[in-house]
Each structure stands twice: as C-alpha cells, then as structure tokens.
Write a sequence for this structure.
C-alpha cells in the first residue's frame, strides 16, 4: 500500500488556502492516507472527502511527503489512480 502526490498546480488564494499553489496527497486506502498525513504533521480537519479522499499540500509539505516515501505521479497517472480509487 502506498501514498501518492500529483504535481504542483497554481491555485487562487483564499481564507482557507493562503498559498498560490497546491498538490494532492492520496492513498491506496483512507486509513493509510490518514496515517501518513499524521506522520507528515497534517491535521485530520484538513482531510477532504469530496470526489476523491485527499489532503492538499503546500510545496514544502509535498517535498517532505516525497522524502517520507510518497510516490510522485504525473497528472495522467494520478487521474487514473484517482478514478480507480473512486470505483473501489
């Protein structure tokens, strides 16, 4: 079982997100995702369970996630993984 990050993408700053870029952290299971997020220092309240269970990451948290073992995926592969997870 693994966790994955997609490439950074530009986004609009808001009251909830004060950064100009983000990426997503997803896992093969929600339990594994939460476990990894905890190790990464993310709050459970930051978890988003809309279309795809994920956490948003800043560029620095993305770097830390990769150092801790998150697998970097290109956009196409990330979307395929997200679709598979949604159908599981």
């Amino acid at each position: 079982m693994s966790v994955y990050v997609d490439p950074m993408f530009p986004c609009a700053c808001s009251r909830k997100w004060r950064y100009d870029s983000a990426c997503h952290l997803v896992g093969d299971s929600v339990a594994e995702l939460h476990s990894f997020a905890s190790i990464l220092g993310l709050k459970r309240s930051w978890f988003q369970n809309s279309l795809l269970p994920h956490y948003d990451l800043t560029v620095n948290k993305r770097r830390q996630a990769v150092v801790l073992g998150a697998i970097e995926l290109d956009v196409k592969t990330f979307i395929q993984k997200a679709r598979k997870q949604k159908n599981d």
